[in-house]
Amino acid sequence: MFRIGEFSTFTRVSVKMLRHYDEIGLLKAGFVDPATSYRYYTADQLPRLNQIIALKDLGISLEQIGELLRTELAPTELRGMLKLRKLELEGHIQREQQRLALLEARLSMLEQPVEGQGYAVVQRSLAPLLVASVRQHVPEVGQPITNLFEELESLVSTHQARAASSPLTLFHNPGYREEELEVEVAVPLKTVIPASARIAVYELPAVPQAACVVYTGSYAHSTTALNALLRWVEANRCHVAGPLREVYLRFGADDPDSLRLPPAFLTNDSEQFVTELQLPVQPHT
Amino acid sequence: MFRIGEFSTFTRVSVKMLRHYDEIGLLKAGFVDPATSYRYYTADQLPRLNQIIALKDLGISLEQIGELLRTELAPTELRGMLKLRKLELEGHIQREQQRLALLEARLSMLEQPVEGQGYAVVQRSLAPLLVASVRQHVPEVGQPITNLFEELESLVSTHQARAASSPLTLFHNPGYREEELEVEVAVPLKTVIPASARIAVYELPAVPQAACVVYTGSYAHSTTALNALLRWVEANRCHVAGPLREVYLRFGADDPDSLRLPPAFLTNDSEQFVTELQLPVQPHT
DNA sequence: GTACACCTTCCGATTATGGGAGAGTCAAGG
DNA sequence: CCTTGACTCTCCCATAATCGGAAGGTGTAC
């Protein structure tokens, strides 16, 4: 039987935390003196505590750990989780690196004078466009969207209905933009093809007036371009009248004629990409 | 001028957060209607917000970001921070992997029956030992300790005072073990050498009774060994009477005779290491 | 002119963790 | 046997960044 302080020094878990684990039932003290309420721990409890801190280091919340330990998890299960977590961690690292790239773009933005960032914003109208599209909530722009494009393109190609213009993404104002991002990825069609539950086939409405800007380079630069767009909108005293569209004019540098490659977001070697942002606007108020 | 919701959708910062940033003065709304308290944002504020989220993604707290932006940071400075952060991130990744290794050890512990974990705990006495030592708070076991050993060994070798026994670490109960770990790393001496402010030279007291266990392999296994030790202490109804000692009997597999290599913690290829844990105990109560 | 989307403030919750107050307990030494 | 000092108890509060919700006011489009 060890007192809480001793147990704390050997397990390197703070007294506060041991008490906390006791409270939430994650690791109850082995014995509690009914007279003094002193907690006493036994060596038998060490394995469980070790499990707990191992799982905690895996990034699992205490609540989930409690559930896991309640089910007396088989070692193989743990192994599996370990592997899974390892993968997850690697993916995490990758995403971190992407973030760094994006961030680099954001920072480089600051190095130039804020005003003339060299983005030529033009106002024009957008023609209606027959498309096949998937609309979906995604946690963030990137891989998921590329996957959606792959799905769409493969479907459309089986019907040989692909029109020779660029694929695009529409960013729908998702409620008040808490939580997730609602995107609609769309590829142009020359003929109507059967829709499905997931995939809609319809005509994107014409837009009488849109502020448009073309940017080159990876997705990381889109922030800057959007910035220019909004600045234009403000300067011209219009207001936004529809979801932002992002049109992938050129992507896949080696194969500029192929429209069938989905855009590769956030890759490093994407400096040759050409993208247009289109923002529907209405003049005046 | 954009209303908060619109600004939110385009910057992908939630309305709640925009209001929060306004409150704490990180990004004040460009204009607040005095009658309605409506917040209005301008395109001019986009760069600043982009800075904020860039820095936030760097892992910097909002408070610090505020300070940074107040000083109108030079771009080169930002570059530097970026590089720094990148390094930091890589280090972080490395540590994560170490943690995974340690964790693997913890988990594998579970795969064996909890009882006989094959650790032979013996009780014996420890002789007094003249040492040079550094006592210091460290955030975690690992690199810092290795460095301390290097420092000690190099000092001792200039005096040619090294005794031919193993270096060790003492883990002092650091208060109640909140915050940091207080370790004392020590190398044995055959003669007294001058002490300094950092480095103490004295005789470690003899310990009449200590529970000892030898384990092989990397530091990751020490948890298990300590576990066995505490179990023994409990079973033999003694209690702990001093700081835990960790004696590095063999380390640096290629050069078993060299006592001058500091132990390499948490490395992968350390399966040949031999370490003894010694825990001073007192019988009975 | 009414509905509906949007905005406001205020209050509370989250998760893992620690600080501190005020009071009780244990063990060792006088 | 009593004091002392280290230890423990419970309770309350705080953090940082973020969200949820309630109650009430605003703007605008049909």
What fold name stands as the CATH topology of the largest domain in chain A?
A: Multidrug-efflux Transporter 1 Regulator Bmrr, Chain A
Assigned CATH superfamily of the largest domain in chain A: Regulatory factor, effector binding domain
Oligomeric state as shown: homodimer
Strand proportion of chain A: 15-25%
Overall tally of domains of chain A:
2
What would you call the shape of chain A?
Answer: elongated
Alpha-carbon distance between the two ends of chain A: 76 Å
Radius of gyration of chain A: 27 Å
Which two chains have the most extensive interface, and how many residues on each? A-B, 58 and 58 residues
Output mean pLDDT of chain A: 81
Low-confidence stretches of chain A: none
Give helix % range of chain A: 25-40%
- Assigned CATH architecture of the largest domain in chain A: Alpha-Beta Barrel
* CATH first level of the largest domain in chain A: Alpha Beta
> So how many helices of chain A?
7
Number of strands of chain A: 12
| Structural class by SSE content of chain A | alpha+beta
Topology:
Two copies of one chain form a homodimer.
Chain A: E1 2-3, H1 4-11, H2 15-23, E2 31-32, E3 39-41, H3 46-57, H4 62-70, H5 75-111, E4 122-126, E5 129-138, H6 143-158, E6 168-172, E7 181-188, E8 199-204, E9 207-216, H7 222-235, E10 238-240, E11 244-250, E12 274-283
Antiparallel strand pairs in A: 1-3, 2-3, 4-9, 5-7, 5-8, 6-7, 6-11, 9-12, 10-12, 11-12
The structure holds a DNA duplex (30 and 30 nucleotides).
